[in-house]
Amino acid sequence: MTDQANPKTRQFELAKKKLVQANLAGEDLSGADLSGGSLMEANLQNASLSGAELSEADLSGADLSGANLHRAILYRTRIRGAALSRANLSQANLQEANFSDTDLTQANLKEAYIEGADFRGADLTKADMEETDLTSAYFSGTTLKEANLVRAELIATDFRQADLSDANLSGADLNHANLGDCNLSRARLVKADFISVDFKGADFSDADLSGADLSYAKNLTCQQVQAARIDQETVLPDYIQITWKSEKEFECTE
Cys-Cys crosslink for 204: which of 12, 34, 86, 228, Cβ 3.0 to 4.6 Å? Predict the structure, then answer.
């Protein structure tokens, strides 16, 4: 809370423990201190929460569709099963927050800090996470179809059984990530770093690995490489040998 908080915002701050199922649609809560608040199943559609403090609050099942959470702080916030489609979470602090089973379709998470957050079972179809820090986040079983992860930090991130089909991960850093049984079909992985990544069972059908670095990748097979598109700048682990027959044709041996 700031000294300039308007009376209505102050009212919500004082009642933050009693906002379960509250109708706050369209309200201006910019900069409000709602940390530790109880906002389960609250209606926050199109609300402004820019710069708000929501650390350790419980927004499980809340509707934040179209809400503005630019630079909001959601450290260890519980937001399971919530609706955040088209929400603006750019530059927000989402460290260790729980977004499992949440609808984040077309949400803007650009440049957000999401280290250690839990997105298991969430839907991030067409979400924008360009240049976002997702280090050690959990995305197992998550839908990320057509998501923008260009130049994202995905170090040690768990993508097991996630759907990244048609996603753009160009220039992303996925060192030590786990992509076991991940769907990467038609994904753009140009110049991405996959050093020491586990690819066991991953689907690379028509994925673009041009210029990607897969040094020391684990459980990569020739079948996966042949299903993808590579070029002579693609770096593969030592146990995968490529013999180029022409500019685009090659033989792969293990």
Answer: 228
Calculate the CA 106 to chain-centre distance: 11
Token pair of 82 as six digits: 């919530």
10-residue averages of pLDDT along the chain (254 residues): 61 79 95 95 97 97 98 98 98 97 98 96 98 96 98 97 98 96 98 95 97 95 96 95 92 94
- Using CA atoms, how far residue 254 sits from 14, 90, 221, 251, in Å, is 65, 43, 7, 10
- pTM greater than the 0.85 cutoff: yes
